[in-house]
Write a structure and sequence with these properties.
The longest helix has 15 residues. This protein has five helices and eight strands; from the N terminus they run E-H-E-H-E-H-E-E-E-H-E-E-H. It has about 180 residues and is of the alpha+beta class. The chain has one domain: Peptide Methionine Sulfoxide Reductase, Chain A. The N terminus is likely disordered. Helices cover about 25% and strands about 20% of the residues.
Length: about 180
């Protein structure tokens, strides 16, 4: 049996949120997958009321995955963004509007030139209210596109914070977005 050691295991853990405590006081959490997490994170960081973001991996079956393992396509995880927001400043419905705007929800396991299940479109719901809002939002969005929306709407599971060099990647490199949406 081959055992791989994750060099980042001390940095991230499924039981530890990406921020101290469980996010900022009074904040709510939303988790979205819409292709490469760099551009998705950058889009959500521009919204007033978004307090913190983290890129990472969720929706799969392998605990504490690395970027390399996720890219091989055998973990079941999607590249995702965890968004902590102040519901007094921005609503979950507004975050959903941004989610639909920044990617193509009609392409399965692909966004722009990025291919693989890790680039799938998904909304990971943290409670029943988010699930209801996500379904209603998807149904409304479906009215404005010809092709079938393939976005997964599923309960949130463990979120594994990605390696530090991925966090705020575009911001660190002087760029504001990376989206390549082909509809």
């Amino acid at each position: 049996m081959l055992k791989l050691r994750n060099r980042n295991a001390a940095v991230r853990s499924p039981s530890t949120p990406p921020f101290a405590g469980h996010g900022p006081d009074g904040a709510e959490r939303a988790t979205f997958a819409a292709g490469c997490f760099w551009g998705v994170e950058a889009a959500f960081r521009q919204i007033n009321g978004v307090l913190q973001t983290a890129v990472g991996y969720t929706g799969g079956h392998v605990p504490d995955p690395s970027y390399e393992r996720v890219c091989r396509g055998r973990t079941g995880h999607a590249e995702a963004v965890e968004v902590w927001f102040d519901p007094a400043q921005v609503s979950y419905a507004q975050l959903l509007q941004t989610f639909w705007r920044i990617h193509n929800p009609t392409t399965r396991n692909r966004q722009g030139f990025d291919f693989g299940s890790q680039y799938r479109s998904a909304i990971f719901c943290h409670d029943a209210g988010q699930r209801e809002a996500a379904i209603a939002s998807r149904d409304a969005e479906q009215q404005s596109v010809r092709r079938q929306i393939v976005t997964q709407i599923t309960p949130a599971s463990a979120f594994y914070r990605a390696e530090e060099y991925h966090q705020r990647y575009l911001e660190k490199h002087g760029r504001t977005s990376r989206a390549v949406t082909i509809r």
